[in-house]
Design brief:
- The protein is an alpha/beta fold and 173 residues long.
- It has one domain: Rossmann fold (3-Layer(aba) Sandwich).
- It contains 5 helices and 5 strands.
- Strand 4, helix 4 and strand 5 form a beta-alpha-beta unit.
- The longest helix is centred in the C-terminal third of the chain and has 15 residues.
- It is globular, with a radius of gyration of 15 Å.
Length: 173
Protein backbone atom coordinates (compact mmCIF):
# COMPACT_ATOMS: atom_id res chain seq x y z
CA UNK A 1 0.00 0.00 0.00
CA UNK A 2 1.30 3.44 -0.96
CA UNK A 3 0.32 6.39 1.22
CA UNK A 4 0.89 9.98 0.18
CA UNK A 5 1.50 12.12 3.28
CA UNK A 6 0.52 15.78 2.93
CA UNK A 7 0.98 18.57 5.45
CA UNK A 8 -1.47 21.45 5.24
CA UNK A 9 1.05 23.84 6.74
CA UNK A 10 3.10 26.34 4.78
CA UNK A 11 6.14 25.79 6.97
CA UNK A 12 8.58 23.17 5.63
CA UNK A 13 9.52 21.99 9.11
CA UNK A 14 6.09 22.43 10.66
CA UNK A 15 4.94 20.23 13.51
CA UNK A 16 2.38 18.76 11.08
CA UNK A 17 5.14 17.69 8.66
CA UNK A 18 7.11 16.24 11.55
CA UNK A 19 4.03 14.35 12.74
CA UNK A 20 3.62 12.82 9.27
CA UNK A 21 7.22 11.59 9.31
CA UNK A 22 6.57 10.08 12.75
CA UNK A 23 3.40 8.42 11.41
CA UNK A 24 5.45 6.60 8.78
CA UNK A 25 7.40 4.94 11.60
CA UNK A 26 4.14 3.49 12.93
CA UNK A 27 3.03 2.01 9.61
CA UNK A 28 2.40 -1.72 9.42
CA UNK A 29 4.58 -3.89 7.20
CA UNK A 30 3.90 -3.39 3.51
CA UNK A 31 2.83 0.24 3.88
CA UNK A 32 5.11 2.70 2.12
CA UNK A 33 4.99 6.45 2.60
CA UNK A 34 5.71 9.15 0.04
CA UNK A 35 5.84 12.71 1.33
CA UNK A 36 4.56 15.69 -0.58
CA UNK A 37 7.59 17.81 0.25
CA UNK A 38 6.81 20.83 -1.88
CA UNK A 39 5.50 23.72 0.18
CA UNK A 40 1.82 24.39 -0.37
CA UNK A 41 2.71 27.99 -1.17
CA UNK A 42 4.48 26.78 -4.33
CA UNK A 43 1.15 25.74 -5.87
CA UNK A 44 -0.10 28.70 -7.92
CA UNK A 45 -3.45 30.27 -7.20
CA UNK A 46 -6.22 28.22 -8.71
CA UNK A 47 -7.86 29.68 -11.79
CA UNK A 48 -10.44 27.88 -13.92
CA UNK A 49 -8.88 29.69 -16.89
CA UNK A 50 -5.70 27.65 -16.34
CA UNK A 51 -7.52 24.38 -15.76
CA UNK A 52 -9.81 24.08 -18.77
CA UNK A 53 -10.10 21.04 -20.97
CA UNK A 54 -6.79 20.33 -22.70
CA UNK A 55 -4.88 22.82 -20.54
CA UNK A 56 -1.42 21.86 -19.35
CA UNK A 57 -1.33 22.32 -15.57
CA UNK A 58 1.45 24.31 -13.91
CA UNK A 59 4.39 22.03 -12.89
CA UNK A 60 3.55 22.10 -9.16
CA UNK A 61 -0.04 21.09 -9.93
CA UNK A 62 1.05 18.32 -12.31
CA UNK A 63 3.37 16.94 -9.60
CA UNK A 64 0.61 16.97 -6.98
CA UNK A 65 -1.80 15.24 -9.34
CA UNK A 66 0.81 12.62 -10.24
CA UNK A 67 1.57 11.85 -6.59
CA UNK A 68 -2.12 11.61 -5.70
CA UNK A 69 -2.84 9.33 -8.66
CA UNK A 70 0.01 6.98 -7.67
CA UNK A 71 -1.14 6.69 -4.03
CA UNK A 72 -3.55 4.12 -2.66
CA UNK A 73 -4.39 6.42 0.22
CA UNK A 74 -3.66 9.90 1.53
CA UNK A 75 -2.76 10.93 5.07
CA UNK A 76 -3.36 14.64 5.64
CA UNK A 77 -2.04 16.38 8.70
CA UNK A 78 -3.27 19.95 8.82
CA UNK A 79 -3.22 22.80 11.31
CA UNK A 80 -5.96 25.32 11.88
CA UNK A 81 -5.46 28.97 10.90
CA UNK A 82 -8.03 31.59 11.88
CA UNK A 83 -10.60 28.87 12.68
CA UNK A 84 -10.28 27.24 9.26
CA UNK A 85 -8.17 25.35 6.77
CA UNK A 86 -4.98 27.14 5.70
CA UNK A 87 -5.70 28.96 2.45
CA UNK A 88 -2.72 27.51 0.58
CA UNK A 89 -3.88 23.96 1.36
CA UNK A 90 -7.42 24.66 0.23
CA UNK A 91 -6.00 26.23 -2.94
CA UNK A 92 -4.03 23.05 -3.69
CA UNK A 93 -7.21 21.00 -3.27
CA UNK A 94 -9.07 23.32 -5.65
CA UNK A 95 -6.67 22.20 -8.41
CA UNK A 96 -7.80 18.59 -7.84
CA UNK A 97 -11.55 19.16 -8.14
CA UNK A 98 -11.77 18.85 -11.92
CA UNK A 99 -9.02 16.26 -12.39
CA UNK A 100 -10.46 13.82 -9.85
CA UNK A 101 -7.38 12.24 -8.25
CA UNK A 102 -9.20 12.05 -4.91
CA UNK A 103 -12.27 10.29 -6.30
CA UNK A 104 -12.72 7.05 -4.29
CA UNK A 105 -9.27 7.57 -2.72
CA UNK A 106 -8.97 6.55 0.93
CA UNK A 107 -8.13 9.60 3.04
CA UNK A 108 -7.28 9.93 6.72
CA UNK A 109 -7.28 13.34 8.41
CA UNK A 110 -5.25 14.33 11.42
CA UNK A 111 -6.09 17.92 12.23
CA UNK A 112 -3.33 18.83 14.65
CA UNK A 113 -2.70 22.13 16.36
CA UNK A 114 -2.40 23.69 19.79
CA UNK A 115 -6.13 24.51 19.66
CA UNK A 116 -7.21 21.06 18.51
CA UNK A 117 -8.20 22.21 14.99
CA UNK A 118 -11.86 21.17 15.28
CA UNK A 119 -13.10 24.02 13.09
CA UNK A 120 -10.60 23.18 10.37
CA UNK A 121 -11.66 19.51 10.47
CA UNK A 122 -15.31 20.54 10.24
CA UNK A 123 -14.48 22.59 7.13
CA UNK A 124 -12.11 20.17 5.41
CA UNK A 125 -14.07 16.93 5.76
CA UNK A 126 -17.06 18.00 3.62
CA UNK A 127 -14.70 19.55 1.06
CA UNK A 128 -12.90 16.22 0.64
CA UNK A 129 -16.16 14.29 0.49
CA UNK A 130 -17.63 16.52 -2.21
CA UNK A 131 -14.42 15.87 -4.17
CA UNK A 132 -15.22 12.15 -3.97
CA UNK A 133 -12.67 11.19 -1.31
CA UNK A 134 -13.44 8.20 0.88
CA UNK A 135 -12.67 9.70 4.31
CA UNK A 136 -11.91 6.63 6.43
CA UNK A 137 -10.56 8.43 9.50
CA UNK A 138 -10.79 11.95 10.86
CA UNK A 139 -9.62 13.33 14.15
CA UNK A 140 -8.92 16.75 15.57
CA UNK A 141 -6.21 16.65 18.18
CA UNK A 142 -4.23 18.93 20.40
CA UNK A 143 -0.66 18.62 19.26
CA UNK A 144 2.56 20.34 20.24
CA UNK A 145 6.15 19.74 19.09
CA UNK A 146 6.95 18.48 22.60
CA UNK A 147 4.89 15.37 21.75
CA UNK A 148 7.82 14.24 19.56
CA UNK A 149 11.15 13.27 21.04
CA UNK A 150 14.55 14.36 19.72
CA UNK A 151 14.67 11.66 17.02
CA UNK A 152 11.14 12.41 15.75
CA UNK A 153 9.36 9.51 17.44
CA UNK A 154 5.97 10.20 19.00
CA UNK A 155 6.60 10.45 22.74
CA UNK A 156 2.97 10.98 23.82
CA UNK A 157 1.05 7.69 24.16
CA UNK A 158 -2.38 9.12 23.20
CA UNK A 159 -0.96 10.88 20.15
CA UNK A 160 0.76 7.65 19.08
CA UNK A 161 -2.51 5.73 19.48
CA UNK A 162 -4.46 8.22 17.33
CA UNK A 163 -1.79 8.39 14.61
CA UNK A 164 -1.45 4.59 14.50
CA UNK A 165 -5.25 4.29 14.15
CA UNK A 166 -5.20 6.72 11.20
CA UNK A 167 -2.48 4.78 9.39
CA UNK A 168 -4.19 1.46 10.10
CA UNK A 169 -7.51 2.81 8.77
CA UNK A 170 -5.77 3.68 5.50
CA UNK A 171 -3.96 0.35 5.35
CA UNK A 172 -7.19 -1.60 5.92
CA UNK A 173 -8.37 -0.76 2.41
Amino acid sequence: MRILAMSGSLRAESSNARLLRAAARLAPEGVRFTFYDRQMGAVPLFSPDLDGEGAIPPPAVAELRRLLAAADGVLICCPEYAHGVPGAFKNALDWIVSSGELTDKRVALLMASASGAERARAALTPTLRVMGANVVFERSMVFAPKFLDADGTIADAETARVVRAAVEALAAG
